[in-house]
Write a structure and sequence with these properties.
Blueprint (H helix, E strand, L loop, with lengths): L1 H15 L2 H8 L3 H15 L4 E3 L4 E3 L1 H25 L7 E7 L1 H8 L3 H7 L3 E7 L6 H4 L3 E6 L7 E8 L1 E5 L1 H7 L13 E4 L7 E5 L4 E5 L5 E2 L2 H9 L4 E5 H10 L3 E2 L9 E7 L7 H14 L9
Parallel strand pairs: 3-4, 3-5, 8-11, 8-12
Antiparallel strand pairs: 1-2, 5-14, 6-14, 7-12, 7-13, 9-10
Helix pairs in contact: 1-2, 1-3, 1-4, 2-3
């Protein structure tokens, strides 16, 4: 039984890359993690980890043990999910990954209401614009915007995600407003660097798609940083309406190339495929759909 209880500790060490980081993840001391791994190795009679002053790495035995430990840990969580379905109220830690701008602007303001409604849930929200691996990061759920790659994840639609091309009135007064997509080659185009092919902008024309290779002096991996740049009058950029909408409404930004739409995307809640969906995950996804996905989103109104 000692070996079984060491499985989540060993997996955490390999996922976090060290004893201290694993301890922080598990809420125990570095020395307690190190002692537990040493006890596991002594019981198995095999060294699982190479230890150096800089990093840890798996031995051949460690690689084999990890492969099966991950399966065992997933099975244990599946068992917990099965029991959790019988609970009357959602309970336990809920770890979610949320894009930075959408999370700060539209999810974070809803969290107090959600936690008052579900007081037995402990929410751990990580805001990051990168696509994280739900299994590796031990996330219960993620919010993602865009076109989802093929995967084993289950996706639930929360709301549409419209994008618009915009610039400040000051920029347009100085450099003129483009009337056709091809004119963008003469403008300073600000890029969101986490997009694949971030400098190729696609527009929906009357009969087909129009793709334009754009260039500019600034790229950044956050939508609100893009917003600050375009409000500062340095160029043209694509922004989701959940960021740009209020500024277009007040006139601080001007939507340009209106006859040419940008491809529609979607905001999803995604979670791992599993036989039993934990009630805490279902509660949070239902909550977001009810607050953000009913009718036209507030940012598009």
């Amino acid at each position: 039984m000692d070996g079984i209880s060491a499985i989540p500790i060993f997996v955490a060490v390999t996922e976090q890359g060290g004893f201290a980081a694993a301890g922080r993840e598990l809420g125990v001391s570095k020395s307690a993690v190190s002692k537990r791994i040493s006890q596991l190795e002594a019981r198995l009679g095999m060294q699982l980890l190479h230890r150096t002053t800089r990093k840890l790495s798996l031995t051949e035995a460690g690689e084999r043990y990890l492969e099966n430990a991950v399966i065992a840990l997933a099975a244990a969580r599946e068992a917990e999910d099965a029991v959790a379905e019988l609970q009357g109220d959602p309970i336990g830690e809920l770890k979610i990954s949320v894009p930075m701008s959408f999370g700060r602007l539209h999810v974070a303001p809803l969290i107090p209401e959600f936690l008052k409604q579900y007081p037995k849930i402990e929410l751990n929200m990580v805001m990051d614009d990168r696509f994280v691996d739900l299994v590796e990061g031990r996330f219960d759920m993620a919010i993602r915007a865009g076109t989802l790659p093929d995967s084993s994840l289950i996706a639930r639609k929360i709301a549409p995600c419209h994008n618009v091309l915009c610039a400040s009135p000051e920029y347009l007064a100085k450099y003129g407003e483009p009337k056709e997509p091809k004119e963008l080659i003469h403008h300073n185009c600000i890029h969101y660097s986490y997009f694949s092919d971030f400098n190729e902008w696609t527009f929906i024309g009357a009969n087909d798609l129009i793709r334009i290779e754009t260039s500019g002096q600034y790229q950044v991996n956050n939508s609100e940083a893009l917003l600050e740049a375009v409000l500062g009058g340095i160029g043209v950029t694509r922004l989701p309406t959940f960021v740009a909408g209020p500024h277009i409404k007040t006139g601080r930004l001007v939507r340009i190339l209106k006859p040419y739409g940008l491809p529609l995307q979607t905001i999803y809640a995604v979670f791992r495929e599993r036989k039993y969906l934990p009630s805490k995950v279902r509660a949070f996804s239902d909550f977001l759909v009810n607050r953000l996905g009913k009718g036209t989103p507030a940012w598009d109104a």
